[in-house]
């Protein structure tokens, strides 16, 4: 285990620490490729870290917990390695069918990846939620596990040292050892490069899995839906996130547009569970929905690199989280 003594930037090793081969030039270093996923309580900073590693916005972040629904992959391309990041939803106490499905999705992801990163925010006490996740993690015996202390910009060195010790002890209590413990700040861009080195060092040797330059294999429509969902969640009540799903019904280039002024028509439905929630999303005389549309449109245009016309409808799908048929329709 390597526990950096301070959260300051360390020079990047020219060879990932886990390689035993000859140091130095790329020719002598075997290429590594594989999958990693981040787990941790809601709001631990998993999506932000994925974005920081990949260098572009692919996963969805928000100030509200549990906004990551779909498995979003970001791909880190380097001359010596390719790291495919799989971003899973937070593991939580299942109260609904959706909750159970999400937890199943998390566990099956753990069995498939080459390394798991457990994210623990530096500014939050290690709590029952973290213990629950790490206890489950301990069961994934064959997969190397890296403890990542996130948001180090929010704490003092002393607080960080305590957190490093706490996470080290927790693994000991549960009978395993972290392959690495790394403090990072995605926001402060601190030690993100080191984390990439450590993660890629734990991947198996092999050729790249994806073509160079590809950032994500998530279908465009899902990413567009996530951007709309993120915009719709901004500034709404705490209970709403779980009740909101977005489905992009259609994305079609507008016919008869001049070649130099294309327009993409995007039709999407925002599903809520109750009429009262519909009113919240729409706002007074539709003012909130207009804001959501404007915010989402800008993000989507940035993602796709083309002007779009966004047609948003809010619909009530009664108790969709408990209804298998509705869940399937909404893509779960
Ligand atoms: N100060 C600081 N804030 C951060 C950092 N990383 C993430 N955050 C903030 O923490 C909040 C949660 O970050 P996310 O990346 O959405 O967390 P997540 O673990 O993906 O959350 P879920 O999708 O709910 O599981 C956001 O408001 C981020 O801006 C960091 O390094 N420093």
UniProtKB/TrEMBL annotation:
Function of this protein?
An essential GTPase that binds both GDP and GTP, with rapid nucleotide exchange. Plays a role in 16S rRNA processing and 30S ribosomal subunit biogenesis and possibly also in cell cycle regulation and energy metabolism.
Q: Where is the KH type-2 domain?
A: 236-318
Output this protein's name. Answer: GTPase Era
Q: Where does GTP bind?
A: 40-47, 87-91, 150-153
Q: How does it sit in the membrane?
A: Peripheral membrane protein
Region annotation G4: where it falls in the sequence: 150-153
Among the record's GO biological process terms, what is one? ribosomal small subunit assembly
Positions of the UniProt region annotated as G1: 40-47
Q: Where is this region: Disordered?
A: 1-28
Q: Which family does it belong to?
A: Belongs to the TRAFAC class TrmE-Era-EngA-EngB-Septin-like GTPase superfamily. Era GTPase family.
Predominant location of this chain? cytoplasm
Region: G5; residue ranges are: 184-186
**Which organism does this record belong to?**
Allostreptomyces psammosilenae
> What InterPro entries would the database entry show?
G_ERA_dom, GTP-bd, GTPase_Era-like, KH_dom-like_a/b, KH_dom_type_2, KH_sf_prok-type, P-loop_NTPase, Small_GTP-bd
Source organism, top-level taxon: Bacteria
Which residue ranges does the record annotate as region G2?
Answer: 66-70
> Where are stretches of biased composition, namely Low complexity?
16-28
Any one Pfam family match given in the protein's UniProt record, by short name: MMR_HSR1
């Amino acid at each position: 285990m390597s526990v950096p003594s301070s959260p300051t930037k360390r020079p990047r090793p020219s060879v990932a620490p886990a390689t035993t081969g000859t140091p130095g030039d790329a020719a002598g270093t075997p290429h590594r490729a594989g999958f990693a996923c981040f787990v941790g309580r809601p709001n631990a900073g998993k999506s932000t870290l994925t974005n920081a590693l990949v260098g572009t916005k692919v996963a969805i972040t928000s100030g509200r917990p549990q906004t990551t629904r779909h498995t979003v992959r970001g791909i880190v391309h380097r001359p010596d390695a390719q790291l495919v990041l799989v971003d899973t939803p937070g593991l939580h106490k299942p109260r609904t069918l959706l909750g159970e499905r999400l937890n199943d999705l998390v566990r099956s992801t753990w069995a498939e990846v080459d390394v798991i990163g457990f994210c623990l925010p530096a500014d939050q006490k290690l709590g029952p939620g973290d213990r629950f996740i790490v206890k489950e993690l301990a069961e994934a015996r064959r997969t190397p596990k890296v403890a990542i202390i996130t948001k180090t910009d929010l704490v003092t060195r002393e607080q960080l040292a305590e957190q490093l010790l706490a996470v080290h002890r927790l693994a000991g209590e549960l009978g395993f050892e972290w392959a690495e413990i790394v403090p990072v700040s995605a926001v402060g861009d601190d030690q993100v490069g080191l984390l990439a080195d450590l993660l890629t060092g734990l991947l198996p040797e092999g050729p790249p899995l994806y073509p160079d330059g590809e950032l994500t294999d998530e279908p465009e429509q899902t990413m567009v839906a996530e951007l709309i969902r993120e915009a719709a969640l901004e500034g709404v009540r705490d209970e709403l996130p779980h009740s909101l799903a977005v489905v992009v019904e259609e994305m079609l280039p507008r016919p008869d547009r001049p070649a130099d002024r294309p327009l993409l028509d995007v039709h999407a439905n925002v599903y809520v569970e109750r009429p009262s929630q519909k009113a919240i999303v729409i706002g007074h005389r539709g003012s909130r929905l207009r804001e959501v549309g404007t915010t989402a449109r800008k993000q989507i245009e940035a993602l796709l690199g083309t002007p779009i016309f966004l047609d948003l409808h809010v619909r009530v799908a009664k108790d969709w989280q408990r209804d298998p048929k509705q869940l399937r329709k909404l893509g779960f």
